[in-house]
Design brief:
The protein is mostly helical. The protein is 81% helix and 0% strand. The longest helix is centred in the last third of the chain and has 53 residues.
Length: 340
C-alpha cells in the first residue's frame, strides 16, 4: 500500500465544535436560530429597498407640483400648464400607491415564509424537548408561543418598512437644503426631539414588558389549569380560590397594560406634535425668507410639504421603538425555551 500512496492530507473542522468539558465556561460562536430563520430570504429585502426607492422618488411629485403652480402657473395664469402638471402629479400619485402596496405585499410574503419556518422550528423543538425541561404549565407555554407572531411581525414587516424608508431621510434633507437653504436646520433640530424620547422610554417599557408577559403567562396557566381540572375544582370546592386568583392576575395585567399604553401613546403623540411643530416653524422662518426676497412663495410651499415627508421615516422609527421592548422580551423567552 505504501507504494500506492501519493500524498497525505490532514483535515480539520473550519469552525469550533461543541465540547462538554468547556461549554459551561465558554461556548463556540453559534448563529442565533431566530435571526437565521427570519433573515433567510434577505435577498428579497433588496426588492423592498428598490420599491421604496421608486415610491419615495414619486413622493416628491407633490412638492414639485406645488412649486410650479405658485411660481409659474399663477403668475402667468396658464390653465393649459396647470392641467398638464395636474395630470402628471396624479399619475405619480397612482404609481406611488402601487409601489407602496407592492412593498406591503413583498413584506407580507417574506414575513409569511419566516413565520412558517420559525413556527416549524419552535413546534418541532417543543415535541422533542426533554421531560425535565418541559414547562411546568401548559398555559404559560401557550402564552409564550402566542407572542411569536408579534415578534415576527415587528421584525420582518414593521421594522423592515421603517428601515427601507430611513435612507431617504438623507436624500430629502439634501433636497430641502437645495431648495430651502437654512430651513433644513429646522428638520435637523427635530431629529433629536424624535429619537431621544424613544430611547429614554426603552428601559421602563422593557420592565413593563417583562411584567406584562409574566402576568399573561400566569393568566393563561390559571385558565388552562381551571379548564383541565374543572371536576377536581368543583369536588374540592376551590371555585372561589381560582376566581380570586383569576381576578387578581387580570387586575395586575390590566394595570401593567395601561402603563404600557400610556408610554407608547405618549411617544406617538409626541411624535405627531413634533411633526406639527416642524411644519409650523418651517412656515414661520420661510415667511421671513419670502419677505426678504430670498425665497419664492412656491419654494416655501414646497419646502413645507417636503419637511413633513422628511420627518415621516423618523416617525416610523419612533413607532418601532415603542414596540421593540415587547418583541425583545418575547424573543428572549423563546431563546431560553429553544436552548433547553
Amino acid at each position: 500500500l505504501g507504494s500506492r500512496v501519493k500524498g497525505l492530507m490532514v483535515l480539520r473542522p473550519l469552525e469550533s465544535t461543541p465540547d462538554a468539558r468547556v461549554d459551561d465556561y465558554i461556548k463556540p460562536y453559534e448563529k442565533n436560530w431566530f435571526w437565521q430563520l427570519a433573515l433567510k430570504d434577505w435577498r428579497r429585502y433588496s426588492d423592498i429597498m428598490l420599491v421604496a426607492l421608486v415610491a419615495n422618488v414619486l413622493a416628491l411629485s407633490g412638492m414639485v407640483f406645488s412649486m410650479q403652480v405658485y411660481d409659474r402657473v399663477v403668475p402667468s395664469q396658464s390653465e393649459a400648464t396647470l392641467w398638464v402638471l395636474f395630470g402628471g402629479v396624479m399619475i405619480a400619485i397612482v404609481f406611488e400607491f402601487i409601489m407602496r402596496m407592492l412593498r406591503v405585499h413583498i413584506s407580507d410574503v417574506v414575513g409569511k415564509r419566516a413565520d412558517l419556518r420559525i413556527s416549524e422550528r419552535v413546534f418541532a423543538h417543543a415535541l422533542r424537548i426533554k421531560n425535565g425541561a418541559r414547562s411546568k404549565s401548559t398555559g404559560s407555554f401557550i402564552a409564550q408561543i402566542r407572542e411569536l407572531e408579534s415578534v415576527r411581525e415587528l421584525i420582518t414587516s414593521t421594522t423592515i418598512a421603517a428601515i427601507s424608508d430611513l435612507p431617504f431621510f438623507l436624500l430629502f434633507v439634501f433636497i430641502l437644503w437645495m431648495i430651502g437653504g437654512p430651513l433644513v436646520l429646522v428638520v435637523l433640530l427635530a431629529v433629536p426631539l424624535l429619537l431621544i424620547p424613544g430611547l429614554l422610554v426603552q428601559r421602563p417599557l422593557g420592565k413593563l414588558s417583562s411584567e406584562g408577559m409574566r402576568e399573561s403567562a400566569i393568566r393563561n396557566a390559571t385558565l388552562v389549569e381551571a379548564v383541565q381540572g374543572l371536576e377536581d375544582i368543583k369536588l374540592m370546592r376551590a371555585e372561589q380560590r381560582f376566581q380570586n386568583q383569576w381576578n387578581n392576575t387580570n387586575d395586575v395585567a390590566a394595570s401593567v397594560g395601561m402603563k404600557q399604553r400610556w408610554l407608547t401613546g405618549l411617544l406617538l403623540t409626541w411624535t405627531q406634535e413634533v411633526q406639527s411643530i416642524v411644519y409650523a416653524v418651517v412656515l414661520l422662518v420661510g415667511c421671513y425668507l419670502v419677505i426678504s426676497g430670498d425665497m419664492t412663495t412656491g419654494a416655501l410651499v414646497g419646502t413645507s410639504i417636503l419637511a413633513s415627508r422628511t420627518i415621516a421615516p423618523l416617525s416610523q422609527i419612533s413607532g418601532v421603538l415603542s414596540r421593540w421592548q415587547s418583541a425583545k422580551v418575547a424573543r428572549k423567552g423563546l431563546d431560553d425555551r429553544m436552548q433547553r
